[in-house]
Amino acid sequence: MAPTTNRSRPRISAKGQQFATVVVGKHQDKFIVHEPLLIHYSDFFRAALTNGMKETEEKTVTLAKDNPKVFEIFVHWLYYQRFPNKAHHDDQELVNRYKDPDVLIALYVFGDQYQARQLRNAALSALFYHTLKSDFYLPYESSIRFAYRRLPTDSPLCRLLVDFYCQYAGPEYYRILNDGYPVQFLLAVASRYAELRIWDAEEDLALASYLEPET
């Protein structure tokens, strides 16, 4: 299966459009989405909806373990190619839900699990800019544990979380512990601190260092 590329967006205004049903979460919330959008932006959905198996025939995909609130923001992004924004008069509940670093981390993880590279880059970019503008607090240990459970430790998001803590975290972030930070995360932070000390460097973070290349 060829990966999704930067080909033109589907023409969803054309007549005779195909739709797919995505059933999300333990309560089986149903989302009706243009099939071409799902196929265009996610290799997972492309495979599920075109491989000739049960999902292809029924045009239904079930994501039993995913969060419907996160999936709804993914659907918003599919259609608008941006996240909810008050300036665009988007629904206020969606705007409030999006303005949370935990949600952006969940969106990135969703994009990793379902092979949606452009969503990963969009979520990471939003987390980067909102954090640098001080719109967001730094992600706490619960979100970092979630990211480290679901992603490779050398993933762009995990690297960004390490750099965020090296650059911006004060002592209070290490005092507010529930179940604690992942050991791999603390080791990465310590290693990064050592690099900065040896180089006597104070680097400004650059978004391009974390984005995945276009294919």
TrEMBL record:
SUPFAM superfamilies: POZ domain (SSF54695). Signal peptide: none annotated. Residues 18-87 form the BTB domain. Pfam families: BTB. This is BTB domain-containing protein.
